[in-house]
Please model this.
Amino acid sequence: MAWAETAGRERLFVRSGEKFVLHPGDCVLGTTREFVALPNDVMAFVEGRSGIGRMGVVVATATQVAPGFHGVIVLELANIGTVPVQVKPEMGIAQLVFAHTLMAPGDRARGYRGRFHCQIYP
Model:
């Protein structure tokens, strides 16, 4: 996670080596550190990792990453547990699964150009 934004609150940058505390009941938007650029004939899915889930943190997102998407992936992190959880930029909290190669390019020959094209923070 690089950027974090709490619902209706502040936006902050979490530097490498720093920690962000996700309190019970909190929901924040966080971004991946990686900038992803998918070709027009590949789609992927974002899956939360079990280690963070076992701490009570749900990694929710619009799980499909569209063909041709360029940008950082925004993750919705919710602490549904009973104790605060420290999240660091180096933590493996989600994984990108390249599950589908399309027979033909996405809906548009030039790929995804929607609202979140080339996003760099939540």
Notes: The first strand starts at residue 3 and ends at 6. The helical segments are 50-53. The beta strands are 3-6, 11-13, 20-22, 27-37, 42-48, 57-60, 64-65, 70-79, 85-87, 94-101. The first helix runs from residue 50 to 53.
